[in-house]
Amino acid sequence: MKENEKAALITGIGGQDGSYLTELLLEKNYTVHGMVRRTSNLLRSRIEHLRRDEKIYGQRFFLHYGDLSDGTTLRRIFRNVRPTELYHLAGQSHVGLSFEIPESTCEEAGMATLRLLEIARDQPAPVRFYHASSSEIFGNATETPQTEKTPMLPTSPYGCAKAFATQLARVYRQSYGLFVCNGILYNHESPRRGENFVTRKIARGVARIARGLDVDLVLGNLESRRDWGRAQDYVRAMWLMLQHKAADDYIVATGETHSVREFVEAAFAIVDLPWEKYVKRDPSFDRPTEPANLVGCADKIRRVLEWKPTGTFPQLVREMVEAELAAIEIKSGQ
Ligand code: GDD
Fold first, then answer.
1. C-alpha angle 304/307/312, rounded to 5°?
2. pTM of the full predicted structure?
3. What is the DSSP string of 194-211?
4. Are strands 179-185 and 250-252 parallel, antiparallel or unpaired?
5. What is the pLDDT of residue 41?
6. Which residues does residue 279 pair with via DSSP β-bridges, in sequence order?
């Protein structure tokens, strides 16, 4: 199949990853279909620039109303779109929140994936299926760094749902020969990250304090460590997985960890302010349990798909803080 005959369907197209992936696939001449939930607010900020582009929207880029819980509509979208590739990114993805709304988190991250696997299995023509798995499946990991073979030991409802869906994807691959890949992604960040994830919260808070709009930044556990990469690199990994001759699972990670405190220090240093003066600690942001030591070994994807992360941790922090400062400037100029 020529690349320009490829049709991708993306669930979760309005999120950080969905928006970068859409840009990547449009560059590669795909027709891109996104599934969006009906909301009262029509503006979807991360893909608005594409929706307003008349050369693209309605030509090679389409949005469809749908909901992960509505199997009839999902099947109808499949019938109309006939995707050659499905990128399943949607669902409640905040780990802390999954302790407060465990049923809906598991419904979205677990059962909805099963629903989509069933639909993909019934398609007349083969569909290549990307499942957004997560490092959270490892939880209290038995080894460091983790590989594709590390046992799953999740420590949150979100991690449990992702473990369920990851294993189901493997079962569908083995039992029905479905081309389905689990991308076991570690944390990946960008200026488009949701505002309640820690990196964006810090970058935004630092910029607002620097411009006199806030007086403090209230955070949870500063000693947590994460393997933070760049979202733009991680969506490229998703695409690479579906281009390979065989379906498989891949860890996507930098192999390097930093603490929340290190992120805070680097972010305040960019605006030349002492972080200790502004950061307040609020235990209500702590989670009932935290994964032990999440750091990924990406050797397999580096070797098989020739993927590698770009940029460094300080560059990532700088990119995020500068984007927030620029956004404040644009707003104040309006
Ligand atoms: N969100 C948040 N807010 N986290 C905080 C805060 C705070 O105020 N203060 C400290 N943290 C700590 C959390 O306790 C956690 O240890 C760490 O910062 C990172 O939290 P998040 O940015 O919320 O990400 P996450 O690691 O829980 O989950 C993200 O990465 C996973 C792996 O890729 C999410 O994107 C998941 O959907 C994803 O699967």
1. 145
2. 0.96
3. -TTSHHHHHHHHHHHHHT
4. parallel
5. 58
6. 217
Ligand 1 center to 226 CA (angstroms): 8
Q: Which pLDDT band holds residue 40 (cuts at 50, 70, 90)?
A: low
Q: Are residues 127 and 267 in the same domain?
A: no
Taking the CB of residue 109, how many other CB atoms lie within 10 A of it? 28
- What are the tens digits of pLDDT across the range 133-169? 999 999 999 999 999 999 999 999 999 999 999 999 9
Q: Which domain holds residue 60?
A: 7-189+228-252
- Give yes or no for residue 200 CB within 6 A of ligand 1: no
Name the pairing type of β-strands 258-259 and 225-226: antiparallel
Is residue 303 included in any domain, yes or no? no
In this structure, the answer to whether residues 165 and 287 fall within a common structural domain is no
Q: With a 6 A CB cut-off, is 211 part of the ligand 1 pocket?
A: no
Chain length of the chain: 334
Question: Considering its fold, how many domains does the chain have in total?
Answer: 2
166: Cα separation from own chain's centroid = 15
What single letter denotes the amino acid at residue 139? G
CATH number of the CATH domain containing 210: 3.90.25.10
Are the C-beta atoms of 309 and 230 separated by less than 8 Å?
Answer: yes
Give CA–CA dist 234/47, Å, rounded: 18
Query: Per residue in 269-325, pLDDT tens?
Result: 999 999 999 999 999 999 999 898 999 999 999 999 999 999 999 999 999 999 999
Q: Is residue 2's pLDDT more than 80?
A: no
> Counting atoms of ligand 1 from 1, which one is nearest the CA of 260?
18
285 CB near ligand 1 (under 6 Å):
yes
Please tell me whether residues 216 and 113 are part of one structural domain: no
For ligand 1, the distance from its centroid to the CA atom of residue 95, given in whole angstroms, is 7
- Band (pLDDT 50/70/90 cuts) for residue 5 is confident
Find tokens 């023509």 and name the residue: 125
- Is 324 near ligand 1, meaning CB less than 6 Å away? no
